[in-house]
Design a protein that fits this description.
- The protein has 9 helices and 4 strands; from the N terminus they run H-H-H-E-H-E-H-E-H-E-H-H-H.
- The chain is α+β, with helices and mostly antiparallel strands and 241 residues long.
- It has 2 domains: 95 residues, no CATH class; 96 residues, Ribosomal protein S10 (Alpha-Beta Plaits), CATH 3.30.70.
- The chain has a 4-stranded antiparallel sheet.
- Helix 2 packs parallel to helix 8 and helix 4 packs antiparallel against helix 6.
């Protein structure tokens, strides 16, 4: 293997302009394929029989509406000091929020804490569940704002209201500031190690080209091979590492 790599490297150096043109052509070809290819499917997956799937099934039995195949929001209510969440005014505010949340165009269902018996023993805290027909990255701004407005109205009624789940969570994505900082640190370490901008820049350049070609290839083939939409993010993280 060492001999093969030595010969490959020597040939690439002697024919460097041809090699550079080949890489440019490859990058252009896979980039064109990525632009024209259908979008990747969402990040859903199914592994029947595993323990986590059994846990999801158990959650669905105990807490209707908590099914994890779409985006979800779990809205926690805390009654004002000295009051119960089951008091008439508080119950009315919660039911109003649940009804308004259920009216969203992408909502699959909304379950009141009084329906699911999701109320603490001291009756000061409860939570409702809102599930959606699409994954979190498929929710529109209108759907998110609709839920936020309903929560704001419940807060105005005097309740402490907080929302969890992935419906309103910020979706992480590759290619942000963290990756840029990592590349900058890598460039600094290579510069100190090699003492030359050329020697430090070459491995970074080849790495970035390799990641670019790999990402474009994943985007081009994701629909054909059924790759998840998270595959590209994971590949970018590993490639940059």
């Amino acid at each position: 293997m060492a001999t093969f790599l030595y010969r490959l490297g020597r040939t690439a150096f002697r024919r460097r302009w041809y090699v550079a043109l080949i890489w440019v052509a490859v990058l252009g070809a896979v980039g064109f394929g990525a632009v024209k290819a259908p979008a990747a499917p969402d990040a859903s997956n199914s592994m029947p029989g595993i323990e986590s799937q059994k846990a999801f099934d158990l959650m669905e039995q105990g807490f209707p509406g908590a099914k994890a195949d779409g985006a979800n929001a779990r809205i926690v209510f805390v009654a004002p000091d000295g009051q119960k969440i089951t008091a008439a005014g508080n119950k009315k505010a919660i039911d109003k929020l649940v009804d308004e949340a259920a009216d969203g165009s992408q909502v699959a269902g909304a379950v009141s804490p009084f329906q699911a018996n999701a109320i603490s023993k001291d009756a000061t805290t409860a939570y409702a569940t809102v599930t959606y027909k699409v994954k979190a990255d498929g929710l529109t701004d209108a759907s998110k704002n609709h839920l936020k407005d309903a929560i704001a109205q419940a807060k105005h009624a005097g309740l402490t209201v907080e929302a969890g789940g992935d419906a309103l969570a910020t979706q992480p994505a590759a290619g942000g500031a963290a990756e840029g900082i990592g590349i900058a640190i890598a460039a600094l370490v290579l510069l100190i190690t090699f003492g030359s901008m050329t020697a430090a820049g070459l491995p970074l350049l080849t790495a970035l080209i390799g990641v670019g070609v790999s990402m474009a290839a994943i985007m081009a083939l994701s629909s054909a091979f059924g790759l998840s939409s998270t595959t590209g993010t994971l590949a970018t993280m590993l490639g940059l590492a």
